[in-house]
């Protein structure tokens, strides 16, 4: 039965005899035969070549990289090599076999000599177990069989699922805390003094929100919006932002411990990737010379400049989204439908968020092309180095694609738009957007909610449906051919390999980025969950629900819809760990800025402790934030409007006087900033510095408090070293020991 196990299958179109492609194919297969490979050919609509590597290749591998103690004791005993290692070695040899024309398999596939290469999904016990107990929706709350995943897909995939399971598990805690904060916000929905003041301000007349067709409006009209804002923007949010900064650190520290335990069980803790790669090169070709390490400052400078150009383009796209929202607001306010006119700003924000999601989808594809091009420019030495370079670049591009627009809403919206009579305009025509009198945080909340929901619903549905539909279509195309084979050529249909090879070929193609894409998706989600969590306390809950499905979705894709992945050996999640640590630091900065700049938390505290009635000495049972809204508005004389601002025809009956209000801290006579503005500005900066230093100190303490490597792992290595030294002594002085 072992003789019928094939390591890899190569698929090719049936080329004419004597054609260039047929000659190239024959040359490549001849090279494999010279290396001792067994090749089996099966003909259908395509040509299938099964290849099996000779046993001595695996013996060489075991000899070079096996346990040195075992080598001393029993040099002739052949231990069975795991299937995952077998596939990995064969894949390496296939990819690095060179024909006399100096072409490798990669070049031949580009020239359509071969169409596909893949290892087979075997009908083995592990696979049946994984299909039944892991790749099913009903197991959504069950623990994952990491050891079995490793036996079938290799260490890299197993570590991805171990990490994803661990992340989801700890997200559960963050989701519960986020829910508590959100529910607490709902309970104070109507009781907030600030929103009460907005709801009762029926005689406060505000400046128009656009130049044409926009009426003066009453502050009390925005009562509901104010309540929603104060549901998100309260003291609990500050505590939650602090909690999430600590959570991010503790999660990574605990993951390092978990990973150390897992890879020690696999005996990979001190595994050396470079040694593994050199051993494979020598097994493939004994004359191989290793490629030396090189560094070119010129090449690095070019790559850096191109990366900066790409980032500038992505920031430009964020600007385009801002311009869209400004123009959309202007158009919606001129609409003939009353509802559209009233909700112009909210509609502009929501359609802007959908447009942002579409740019994310499109730019993801562009970013990948650019990152690959930059990696080719760098000429990395090894595959893993190339993968690391690619990871850093694509993450940087994706980060700017996803977050530029959010950064604008959080930190610039409503702060750079001037004041009535002197607005900042785009192309001298359209006014920049303003913040709502109760703050900008709701805009950020809406944007985050829409993007996260769209990413998690549409993207996940597409991620599952596209491979599922593609698989069904490929299966259908095959069926009629199969039946005629059964009737016409009975003896060939009996070949057990044929059915297996065909069914594997009908599955969806996997490539070296299949696992990378899953990681990238999760790391971007982790960024959303931590960086702006102060504005969106439900982010961890959405991420938690998404991940429960994501684990099974990925499992079903890998087991049932896609060809078998080439297993990769690994002892950690690679450069992703550094990326996650960088996000942890960005999360502290981001949340600090959201609370200091976007939220109304600081102006309200400054008012409470400096200007409020409580400070005047007559604070008998009065709420300290009483009068805050009036304090945060400035007055404006109608005659100072710009000449091309079209004033509303009919002013409200009670608005005979010429003074209207807007949200800012400015003097009534020359519209310069008041003392309060600078007071609040100083308080914002002081809070930011304090918050970030406190959060970073807590992060450092948490990192110190939770050791990276558990004591049990350290003790295991200590015992191993001790017993090895003892053995050495036994060899040298048997009589003394």
Automatic annotation (TrEMBL):
<dbReference type="GO" id="GO:0005886">
    <property type="term" value="C:plasma membrane"/>
</dbReference>
<feature type="transmembrane region" description="Helical">
    <location>
        <begin position="237"/>
        <end position="255"/>
    </location>
</feature>
<keyword id="KW-1003">Cell membrane</keyword>
<feature type="transmembrane region" description="Helical">
    <location>
        <begin position="157"/>
        <end position="186"/>
    </location>
</feature>
<comment type="similarity">
    <text>Belongs to the anoctamin family.</text>
</comment>
<feature type="transmembrane region" description="Helical">
    <location>
        <begin position="573"/>
        <end position="597"/>
    </location>
</feature>
<feature type="domain" description="Anoctamin dimerisation">
    <location>
        <begin position="84"/>
        <end position="146"/>
    </location>
</feature>
<protein>
    <recommendedName>
        <fullName>Anoctamin</fullName>
    </recommendedName>
</protein>
<feature type="domain" description="Anoctamin transmembrane">
    <location>
        <begin position="149"/>
        <end position="716"/>
    </location>
</feature>
<dbReference type="Pfam" id="PF16178">
    <property type="entry name" value="Anoct_dimer"/>
</dbReference>
<feature type="transmembrane region" description="Helical">
    <location>
        <begin position="301"/>
        <end position="324"/>
    </location>
</feature>
<dbReference type="InterPro" id="IPR049452">
    <property type="entry name" value="Anoctamin_TM"/>
</dbReference>
<keyword id="KW-0812">Transmembrane</keyword>
<feature type="transmembrane region" description="Helical">
    <location>
        <begin position="344"/>
        <end position="363"/>
    </location>
</feature>
<dbReference type="GO" id="GO:0005254">
    <property type="term" value="F:chloride channel activity"/>
</dbReference>
<dbReference type="InterPro" id="IPR007632">
    <property type="entry name" value="Anoctamin"/>
</dbReference>
<dbReference type="GO" id="GO:0046983">
    <property type="term" value="F:protein dimerization activity"/>
</dbReference>
<keyword id="KW-0325">Glycoprotein</keyword>
<feature type="transmembrane region" description="Helical">
    <location>
        <begin position="523"/>
        <end position="549"/>
    </location>
</feature>
<dbReference type="Pfam" id="PF04547">
    <property type="entry name" value="Anoctamin"/>
</dbReference>
<dbReference type="InterPro" id="IPR032394">
    <property type="entry name" value="Anoct_dimer"/>
</dbReference>
<keyword id="KW-1133">Transmembrane helix</keyword>
<feature type="transmembrane region" description="Helical">
    <location>
        <begin position="390"/>
        <end position="413"/>
    </location>
</feature>
<keyword id="KW-0472">Membrane</keyword>
């Amino acid at each position: 039965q072992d003789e019928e196990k094939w390591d890899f299958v190569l698929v090719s179109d049936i080329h004419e005899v004597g054609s260039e492609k047929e000659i190239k194919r024959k040359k490549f297969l001849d090279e494999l035969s010279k290396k001792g490979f067994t090749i089996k050919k099966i003909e259908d609509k395509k040509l299938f070549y099964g290849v099996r590597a000779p046993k001595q290749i695996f013996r060489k591998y075991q000899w070079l990289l096996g346990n040195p103690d075992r080598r001393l004791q029993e040099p002739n005993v052949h231990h069975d090599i795991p299937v995952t290692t077998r596939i990995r070695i064969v894949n390496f040899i296939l990819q690095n076999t060179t024909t006399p024309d100096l072409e490798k398999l990669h070049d031949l596939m580009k020239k359509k000599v071969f169409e596909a290469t893949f290892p087979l999904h075997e009908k083995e016990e592990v696979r049946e177990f994984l299909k039944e107990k892991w790749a099913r929706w009903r197991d959504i709350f069950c623990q994952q069989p990491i050891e079995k995943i490793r036996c079938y897909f290799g260490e890299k995939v197993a570590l991805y699922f171990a990490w994803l399971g661990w992340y989801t598990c700890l997200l559960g805690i963050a989701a519960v805390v986020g829910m508590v904060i959100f529910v607490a916000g709902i309970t104070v929905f109507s009781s907030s003094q600030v929103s009460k003041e907005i709801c009762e301000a029926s005689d406060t007349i505000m400046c128009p929100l656009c130049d044409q067709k926009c009426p003066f409006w009453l502050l009390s009209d925005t009562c509901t919006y104010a309540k929603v804002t104060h549901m998100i923007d309260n003291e609990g949010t500050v505590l939650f932002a602090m909690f999430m900064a600590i959570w991010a650190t503790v999660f990574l520290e605990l993951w390092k411990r978990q990973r150390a335990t897992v890879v020690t069980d696999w005996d990979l803790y001190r595994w050396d990737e470079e040694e593994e790669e050199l051993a494979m090169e020598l097994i493939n070709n004994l004359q191989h010379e290793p490629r030396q390490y090189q560094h070119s400052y010129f090449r690095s400078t070019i790559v850096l400049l191109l990366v900066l150009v790409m980032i500038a383009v992505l920031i430009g796209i964020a600007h385009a989204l801002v311009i869209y929202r400004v123009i959309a607001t202007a158009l919606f306010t001129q609409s003939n439908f009353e509802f559209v006119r009233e909700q112009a700003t909210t509609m502009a924000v929501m359609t802007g968020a959908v447009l942002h999601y579409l740019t994310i989808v499109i730019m993801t594809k562009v970013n990948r092309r650019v990152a690959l091009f930059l990696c080719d420019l760098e000429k990395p030495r090894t595959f893993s180095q190339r993968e690391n370079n690619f990871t850093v670049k694509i993450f940087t591009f994706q980060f700017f694609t996803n977050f530029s627009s959010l950064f604008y809403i959080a930190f610039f919206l409503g702060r750079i738009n001037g004041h009535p009579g002197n607005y900042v305009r785009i192309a001298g025509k359209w006014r920049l957007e303003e913040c709502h009198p109760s703050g900008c945080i709701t805009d950020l909340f809406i944007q985050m909610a829409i993007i996260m929901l769209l990413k998690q619903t549409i993207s996940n549905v597409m991620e599952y449906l596209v491979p599922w539909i593609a698989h069904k279509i490929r299966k259908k195309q095959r069926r009629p051919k199969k039946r005629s084979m059964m009737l016409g050529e009975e003896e060939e249909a009996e070949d057990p390999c044929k059915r297996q090879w065909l069914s594997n070929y009908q599955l969806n193609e996997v490539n070296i980025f299949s696992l990378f894409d899953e990681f990238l998706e999760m790391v971007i989600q982790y960024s959303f969950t931590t960086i702006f969590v102060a504005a969106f306390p439900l982010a961890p809950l959405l991420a938690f629900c998404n991940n429960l499905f994501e684990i099974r979705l990925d499992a079903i894709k890998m087991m049932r819809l896609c060809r078998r992945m080439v297993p990769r050996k690994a002892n950690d999640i690679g450069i992703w760990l550094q990326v996650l640590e960088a996000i942890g630091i960005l999360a502290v900065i981001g949340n600090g800025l959201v609370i200091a700049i976007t939220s109304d938390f600081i102006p309200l505290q400054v008012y409470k402790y400096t200007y409020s009635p409580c400070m005047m000495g007559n604070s008998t049972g009065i709420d300290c934030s009483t009068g805050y809204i009036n304090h945060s508005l400035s007055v404006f004389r109608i005659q100072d409007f710009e000449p091309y601002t079209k004033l509303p025809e009919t002013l409200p009956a009670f608005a005979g006087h010429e003074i209207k209000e807007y949200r800012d801290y400015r003097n009534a006579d020359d519209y310069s900033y008041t003392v309060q503005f600078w007071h609040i500005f100083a308080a914002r900066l002081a809070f930011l510095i304090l918050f970030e230093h406190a959060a970073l100190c807590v992060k450092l303490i948490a990192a110190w408090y939770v050791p990276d490597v558990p004591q049990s792992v350290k003790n295991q290595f200590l015992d191993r070293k001790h017993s090895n030294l003892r053995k050495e002594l036994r060899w040298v002085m048997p009589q003394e020991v």
